[in-house]
Amino acid sequence: QVQLVESGGGLVQPGGSLRLSCVASGSIFNIYAMRWYRQAPGKQRELVASITSGGVSTNYADSVKGRFTISRDNAKNTVYLQMNSLKPEDTAVYYCNAGRWVGVRFDTYWGQGTQVTVSS
Q1: Is 88 helix (H, G, I), strand (E, B) or coil?
Q2: What is the C-alpha separation between 83 and 19, in angstroms, rounded?
Q3: pLDDT per position as a tens digit, 96-117
């Protein structure tokens, strides 16, 4: 079992920045790939960014490339999402996700989400 707690959301003006954090507990953090998802009102949850267990490889949705950066500190059991040049369309609830394959089963865990609102 993995417990995930996000923080760092809030209200920011267009062009501003926020850094989201997600702290994990309950299991060995560095065996999990980590992802940030977001869900805007009336829309499906979408994958924003992912990072491998060792932090070597990252991937981003086209809509955030060049503006968002995912990173992790395995010593602190924490994954981050640095969000720069924020746009109103980035407004959503952002969720942290941990996942790994155990044989043929995919174990996945979610945080409770943190609200990000980009508005003037």
Answers
A1: helix
A2: 6
A3: 999 988 899 999 999 999 999 9
